[in-house]
Amino acid sequence: MAAVERFPVRAVLFDLDGTLLDTIGDLVEAANRMLAELGRPLRSPAQIHSFVGKGVAMLVRRCLTEDAHATEVEIERGIEVFRRHYAEINGDTTRIYPGIEDTLQAMRTLGLKLAVVTNKAEEFTLPLLERMGFAGRFDAVVSGDSVATKKPDPAMLHHACGLLGIGAAQALMIGDSANDALAARAAGMPVLLVDYGYSEGMPVDTIECDGLLSSALEALDRIAVA
């Protein structure tokens, strides 16, 4: 069996939803509360699962327009309603994926810098990290409104690297979707994808990346500390 490639890095950037945390229960609940308030048919968990990945605005847009028409005014109203409901339940049913806490501790022991890079808005990201006991575990947190563009644009990854004081080539991205893979490729850093996340309905093994992980712990075998 051929040896796996090890990446000489000084930092690891993590996606949040579908990578560190399983947040789908809260997203489904908030989305369906939004749809009910707007008088729209509710969506199945599987549908909403496939809509997650590009932030709240896109999630709401997909919920309202996937098989029906919605005006921009209706979509803006939906975003407002979703935000209100999600703020009330953010973290209620969220769980930390198995292996994540041990992975973070092991990476800290190796002296790696750690960051979260998520398309989730800061108003939801920071309270969620606090509620799940992750506040202070990361050297930087870049949310969906920290810079002008979201993943798959690489700007968020470059911003995170700037906060960490490293170059993009010195970081490894770990995510669950094409958003993460495309952003990492454009930023010039290696990327590993977990196979248990959301990936917007796209089979994760069809996404170009440097390796798939069934547990975040497997990333430790792919790192050679620079």
From TrEMBL:
Cofactor annotation? Mg(2+)
GO terms for MF: metal ion binding; phosphoglycolate phosphatase activity
Q: Which Gene3D superfamilies match?
A: HAD superfamily/HAD-like, Putative phosphatase, domain 2
GO biological-process terms attached to the record: carbohydrate metabolic process; DNA repair; glycolate biosynthetic process
Q: What is its EC number?
A: 3.1.3.18
Q: Does the keyword Magnesium apply?
A: yes
Q: Identify its protein family.
A: Belongs to the HAD-like hydrolase superfamily. CbbY/CbbZ/Gph/YieH family.
Q: What does this protein do?
A: Specifically catalyzes the dephosphorylation of 2-phosphoglycolate. Is involved in the dissimilation of the intracellular 2-phosphoglycolate formed during the DNA repair of 3'-phosphoglycolate ends, a major class of DNA lesions induced by oxidative stress.
Protein's recorded name: Phosphoglycolate phosphatase
Species whose genome carries this gene: Azoarcus indigens
